[in-house]
Recover the amino acids of this structure.
């Protein structure tokens, strides 16, 4: 018997939704929430409520899977959290084997402070090409830019305990991008992720899936690109100010001219970058005095490396093209700086709100 509530977000389901509900009930799930996300017909949902005893939540219009998940989590915390210890999400098309759902619940029981993911094997030849490509691409993106090693970023089989659910209710994202935001939230809040291997089941080449590989991938990557946009904006500010100062300080000696231009541009761009990263990107709750000290230790080292790199290249190639030299040097330093900010400067404490 599981003291967890099962949640099934659904849009225009077929008869398979009854199969998954029956299996859940036969395996001890007493609380089942079904979200009708603006389906064209209410017939199946009424049967689930009246014949199977499911709690039915209804969106008048289609608002997206992410909104459906948040609707269910909010309802759960208000009505069931005193009786249950957490929730497990499952798809309505019976693509999640009941043994795998139970395995994720077993894992959550052992790790109640974690987000549990049921992960598929994408080397399986049965996986449709669009699903294999989408998951592998997103997984690589997560490893490179977010420092998260997740083998299945788009899995709908997820389990979480009462302790961490409140962090996800107000999270941004209305469609499949919400599931991506959920993973990023675990990074910001230092919530462990536990992976449980599950069967790879695709019915009818996954044609019933409401995941749009173009529209929903754009939403996912738009959010991930936003994660690094403040650093890119700071880099633009730095380059523009550097070139302006380099022209204005034309009367100085070569190495002093480069040093002053680099320092002036870096002071302004770093203040912008720190403020945006602290408040909007990483939303660090750590003491600002601590993060700003760590940030400027990194900033000083990065500025020294930038100056050294540009000056060294200028000795070889001359000072006529120092802007391009700086672009090359700072591109390399940007990649290093992002990872250090993510894991050291702003990665020490839970984020705000």
């Amino acid at each position: 018997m599981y003291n967890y509530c099962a949640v099934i977000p659904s849009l225009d389901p077929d008869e398979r939704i009854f199969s998954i509900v029956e299996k859940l009930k036969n395996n001890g799930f007493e609380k089942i929430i079904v979200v009708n996300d603006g389906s064209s017909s209410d017939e199946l949902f009424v049967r689930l409520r009246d014949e199977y005893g499911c709690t039915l939540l209804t969106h008048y219009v289609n608002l997206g899977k992410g909104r459906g998940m948040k609707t269910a989590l909010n309802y759960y915390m208000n009505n069931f959290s005193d009786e249950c210890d957490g929730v497990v999400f499952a798809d309505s098309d019976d693509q999640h084997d009941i043994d795998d759902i139970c395995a994720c619940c077993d894992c959550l029981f052992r790790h109640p402070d974690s987000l549990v993911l049921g992960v598929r094997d994408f080397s399986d030849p049965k996986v449709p090409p669009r699903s294999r490509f989408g998951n592998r691409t997103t997984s690589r993106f997560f490893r490179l830019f977010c420092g998260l090693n997740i083998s299945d970023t788009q899995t709908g089989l997820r389990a979480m305990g009462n302790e961490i659910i409140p962090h996800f209710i107000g999270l941004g994202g209305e469609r499949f991008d919400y599931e991506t935001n959920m993973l990023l939230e675990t990074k910001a809040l230092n919530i462990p992720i536990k992976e449980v291997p599950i069967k790879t089941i695709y019915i009818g080449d996954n044609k019933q899936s409401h995941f749009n590989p173009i529209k929903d991938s754009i939403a996912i990557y738009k959010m991930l690109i936003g994660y690094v946009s403040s650093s890119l904006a700071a880099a633009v500010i730095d380059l523009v100010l550097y070139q302006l100062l380099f022209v204005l300080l034309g009367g100085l000696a070569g190495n002093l001219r480069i040093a002053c231009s680099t320092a002036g541009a870096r002071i302004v761009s770093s203040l912008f970058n720190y403020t945006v990263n602290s408040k909007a990107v990483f939303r660090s709750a750590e003491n600002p005095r601590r993060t700003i000290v760590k940030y400027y230790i990194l900033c000083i080292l990065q500025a020294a490396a930038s100056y050294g790199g540009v000056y060294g290249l200028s000795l070889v190639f001359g000072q006529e093209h120092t802007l391009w030299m700086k672009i090359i040097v700072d591109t390399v330093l940007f990649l290093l700086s992002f990872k250090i900010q993510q894991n050291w400067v702003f990665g020490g404490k839970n984020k705000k709100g």
